[in-house]
Amino acid sequence: MQSEKKLERIHRNNSLYVILVTAGVLIGLIADLLYGLLPIAMLSGALGGMTLAFLIGISSGSKKVIASPETEHVWPVIEVSAEDVKKAVRAYSEKLPKGVYRTILVKEDNSIDAEQLAPFLKGLPSRKFYMSKETYDIFGEDEKEIAITIDKVQKAVDLYVKEHKEFPMLPYDPLNRVNYYQLLQAHCLDTKPEIELYITNYDGLVTHIKPKKNSTGN
């Protein structure tokens, strides 16, 4: 059906193009006969007809780009878990071109753009979910502050490591807790977070999950 509509539109535009160019040539020919302008008027008329046909073609083409509300898919509101959203985000990221990351799903307030995930969830979540741009951890509405805190602390930890060549944590701490005092003293952090975060052995990423043992295996 779409192919038929496309062919119909092309045929209609081609017919219009021929009519307008022909009209331009005839107008130019009449001007030649009346005023003796030779081929100049005929050429001008032809060019005028071609230009008008081109402009009309652009105008009609631009109208087709705008999607009508009737053609947009209406997704149902559904109940989903954080795990469902994680799977949808993973599937979404696998479809992204090289060099584009899943963080394009995350809005300024760390909430996830549910409309982009709707095709993978087969619906729109009934509540908001939030994601850390630094670690990709996903949280529900009641834990959205954790996502924001993780991003803030992760950036501070990365800056500290870059400047001091070591992680901001106390020696022999079995939990590898982020030492906020060190980050504050180094001016990598402006305020102390209210939650404990821990440094993992995954490229120094931080987590809110308390480890059962030293994450480096020591």
From TrEMBL:
Keywords: Membrane, Transmembrane, Transmembrane helix. This is DUF3939 domain-containing protein. The chain crosses the membrane at residues 16-34, 40-58. InterPro entries: DUF3939 (IPR025071). It holds the Pfam family DUF3939.
